[in-house]
UniProtKB/TrEMBL annotation:
Signal sequence segment: none
CDD domains xref list: IMPase_like (cd01637)
Source species of the chain: Companilactobacillus keshanensis
Top-level taxon: Bacteria
Keyword NAD among record annotations: no
Pfam families according to UniProt: Inositol_P
Keywords from the named record: Hydrolase, Magnesium, Metal-binding
Keyword field contains Metal-binding: yes
Protein name: Inositol monophosphatase family protein
Length: 258
């Protein structure tokens, strides 16, 4: 399938620019809030309306694409053939509701199973991180360079709080070897930190839409994305994922196996 990368990247940036402006206003409004899998898995009327709008725009532009989306307005995606979009309308809904800060919107694009383009908007900053392996990675229009390949003791780590509290996968040992633990509650915000070297590790249980855009950006900049057992990443299922520098992921994989 022949795709104009520049045109698609500009399309993603345009979409998230519109979404970012809307969500910045919406974050200050009263919200209709519900729960999904648990009391800490929230969904709002703005998650649904944002996703519905994004899916509609993508379908209008790329009629042959399939869309894997969080709130169910996309398609039933059974395989990764062709052009597949992953849509996360509001990443960090708890932050959106409780803090009105540290939340993002994300779109990841895969072509025949391979990372192609990704875009994340940090809504509060109104900054869009976008691009892909054959295009380069950008913060708005500024090109992003690869972060330094730091080791675990050199950097801060972000691990999901339930994982740390329960000490799943020896996560507390990972924290103790690092420079310290940070928890933000939004994969999109953490991917932003990773690509700029502000943190060296992210370990969490992620759904496909949580991971898709960030994986494209991180791998394009030389960071490593791995499952907890170092098996191939399956973009059609939720899984525990480790993202970080080459040195850190290698060290963490040894720690979690102990």
């Amino acid at each position: 399938m022949k795709i104009n990368i520049k045109e698609m990247d500009e399309f993603l940036v345009e979409l998230l620019s519109e979404v970012g402006k809307s969500l910045l206003v919406d974050s200050k409004k009263d919200k209709s809030v519900g729960t999904k899998s648990s009391r800490i898995d929230l969904v709002t009327n703005f998650d649904k309306s944002t996703e519905k709008w994004l899916v509609g725009k993508i379908k209008e532009k790329y009629t042959d694409a399939t869309i894997f989306s969080e709130e169910g307005y996309g398609d039933v995606v059974k395989d990764m053939s062709g052009l597949v979009f992953f849509v996360d309308p509001i990443d960090g809904t708890m932050n959106f509701v409780k803090r009105r800060d540290d939340f993002a919107s994300m779109i990841g694009v895969y072509l025949d199973g391979k990372p192609f383009l990704g875009a994340i908007i940090d809504v509060i900053k109104q900054e869009i991180y976008h691009g892909g392996p054959d295009y380069g990675i950008f913060r708005n229009k500024e090109k992003v360079i690869s972060p330094k390949n730091q080791s675990l003791p050199e950097g801060l780590v972000d691990i999901s709080w339930p994982m740390v509290v329960a000490d799943r996968f020896n996560s507390q040992a990972v924290v103790q070897k690092s420079s310290g633990l940070r928890i933000y509650g939004s994969a999109g915000i953490i991917f932003e930190h990773l690509i700029f070297g502000r943190e060296v590790l992210y370990m969490s249980y992620l759904a496909p839409w949580d991971l898709a855009a960030g994986r494209v950006l991180c791998e394009s900049l030389g960071l490593k994305v791995s499952t907890i057992d170092d098996s191939p990443v399956n973009m059609l299922k939720s899984q525990v994922v480790i993202v970080g520098t080459e040195k850190v992921v290698s060290e963490v994989l040894k720690t979690v196996k102990k």
